[in-house]
Amino acid sequence: MDSPPLYTVLIVDDDPVTRLLMKQSLQDPNLTIIEAQNGEQAIDLFAEHLPDITLLDVSMPGMDGFTCCRKLRSLPKGQQSAIVMVTIHDKVDEIEKAFEAGATDFITKPFKWPLFSHRIHYILNANNTLRELSQSRSKLAKAQAIAHLVYWEWDFKQNRIDCSGDLYRLLGIENTSQGVSFKHIIRHIFPEDRALFKQVLRRAINQKHSYDIEYRVQSESGQLFYLHERTEIIEDYDGWKIIGTLQDITLLKQSEQEIAYFTYYDTLTDLPNRRLFLEQLETAIARARHKQQSLTLMFIDLDHFKHINDKFGHLVGDVLLCEAAARIKDCLRDADLIAVSKDKDDRVARFAGDEFTVMLTNIDNVDVLANIAQRIVAKFEKSFDIKGYNVFSTVSIGIALFPEDGDNVQSLMQHADVAMNHAKELGRNNYQFFSTEMNDYLYERLQIEQDLRQALERNEFLLFYQPQIEVETNKIIGFEALLRWLHPTKGLLGPLTFIDVAESTGLIITIGEWVLNQACLQTHKWQQRFGGQWRVSVNLSAMQFNQQLLLEQVGHCLNASRLPASSLELEITETAMLTDVMETIPLLNALKEMGVGLAIDDFGTGYSSLSYLKNFPINTLKIDKTFVDEIVGNPKDAAIARTIVQLADNLGLRTIAEGVESVEQVNMLTTMGCKELQGYYYSKPLPASEIERLLVNAHGMQNH
After folding, report:
1. What's the whole-number mean pLDDT along residues 426-455?
2. Do β-strands 105-108 and 82-87 pair in parallel, antiparallel, or remain unpaired?
3. How far is C-alpha 21 from the chain's CA centre?
4. Cα(111)–Cα(116) distance, integer angstroms
C-alpha cells in the first residue's frame, strides 16, 4: 500500500501558548509543522516551505490576518494551499471578510480540541482532493484529445452506440461487440435528468447542434455518478454522426456539496446556519407577501447555557446544543412549518451560539402558535442526561408575526429578539409575543441604561437621608442613605425607576461604591460639626455583596472619609446573603472584624431561615414595611412583628421597624419592645441640607 501523503502545516499566531496547543493537538508523523508569530514572518516561511495548509490568526499586532491572507494568495502556488482563518468572532461580516480575503475556511476560538485535529485533517484531505481533481481534469482533457478516453460515437442510421471500455466500466454493464443501445443509455440516466438529456439530444439530431451538459447516471449496482458530456456533430461519407466524450466529475460535485454544506450549515447540529436562515427568511417573507399569507418567526434561547458550559465543560455544552436542536424539531409538526428543501430538514436553524430560530407559515390562529411554543417550553422542562450529568436548561421564546410585527427581515428579527428578551425578564422558561407596548417598554429601559451610564460623570446622583429614631429618648440615632437620581429631563427619580437596570447592566457596582463613599463622607461631616455619633445605614445590592472587592471598597471609603467603622451599618437582604453561604460567612466575619455593623434588610420577606442568624455575625434585624403597614388592624402582621422583636431580643440583636406612619404604630411597636423606628411619622427622606436643619434644631444650634 502507498504511504499516506506528508503535509506541511504553517501555524501563524502571536500567542505562543496557542501555537503550542495547536502543535500538540496536531501531533502526527505525517505532518510537518512550522510556526510564525506574525504576518511578515508567515509570508517568508510560506514562500520557503509552500505549506499545504496555513492556520492564520485574524487578530495580530502589525499585519492582521486578512491582509496576510491576501498576500499569501498572491505568492507563487499561493492559490493551491488551504488557508484557515482563526477568529474569536462568528459574526457573518467577519466570516465574509475572511472569504473575501481568500480564506478556504474559518475556525472560531475557543477551539473544541477533540475535533480540531479531525477538522484540520479533513480540510487537508479535501484540499488535496480538489488539487488532484484539477490535475486529473487537465490530464483527462489531454487524454480525450489524444486517446479518445470515455469516447462514444452514434451513427444516426443505426441504433447502436459505439463506446470505449471506460463507459462500460462506469455503468457496470457487460462490454459486447454490439455496443450499447440508446434505450440502454437512457435507462441508466437518473430519472430527474432524463428529460434534459432527451431534449438536447433531440435538438442535436434535428438541428445538427452540438451540446455540452452535465447529468447523473446510475450504474447497475445503484452507484450514482455525475458526468460532464461534450459532443460534436460531424458528417462523413456514412452520413451524420454524434461523437462525444464523458468526464466523471463526481468528486468535484461532492466537493462542491461539501463546500456548500460548510457555508450554509452548522457542523455541530446539522441545522441551517445564520447565513442560510436569513436567506430562507427573505424568501419566505417574499412568498408570504405575494400570497398574502401570515408568517411567524420564533426566536429560541437556551437559559443559563453559559453557566452550563462553565460548570460541565464545552463537550457537555456541545451535546446539549445537539439534543436541544432535536427536541425543537421533535416539537414541530410538518403542517406547522415551511418546507424549504426536499433533501434536508431546513425548517429549524441554529442562528448563533445557543440561539435557535423556527419559521411557521400561514397560521393565523394565535392559540395554535401559543400551543406550539408551549410544546417547546414543556419539552425543555425535562432534564438532559449528558455524559452522566443531569443537566437542566429551559428556553425563553420570542414570537413575532408577519406582517403585523414587521414586514422585512430586519424588523421581524429585531422584534422576535425583543420578545425573547422580555421572556427572560419575566423569569425565563416561558414564551412571549411581541407587542408595541413591550417594544416601548424595552426602548425606555435602553434609554435609561444609556442615561445611567452618563449619570455618574455628570454628577446627577444625590443622597437623601431618612432619620432613625430611638424610642426611649425620641432622638435621632442614625440615618438610612437613600439614592436619588436628578435626571436632566425627567426630574427627581427614586431607585425603583432605575435600580433594576443598574443591576442588569452591572452599573450598580460603580453606583454602589459612590453611594458608600458619599454616605461616609457626609456622616463624618455631621459628626465633626455637631459632635454626635450618628451611624449611617447603606443598602448593598446582591451584586455588590457578592463581588470580590467589597471588603476593599468598604475599607477605602472608611479611610477616605475618616468615619469610624462603628458608625457604618451595611444593610443586606436575606436572598443576597444566602446565595453562597460558604463565601458569605468569611466576608461577614471580615466586615465584623473591621467594626462595621451588619443589618438584615426586609427581614421576613426572603428565605427567613433561622439557621443563618446563628452562623452570621448580624447586629440588626429590620422589620419590613409590609408588616408595619397593617400592624394595627391585622393580628397576623402584629404577630409577625412581635415574633421578630422577641427573636432578635433572645439573640441579642437590635430591631428597627421601617415605614412607621402613625402614632398607633409607634405605640404598638414600642409595646412589643422595638426600640428603634423609622418612617414618615418622624420624617420622610430628606436631602443633606434639610437634615442639617433638623440637627441644628435638635442641638439648639440655630445660631451656629
Report:
1. 83
2. parallel
3. 26
4. 7
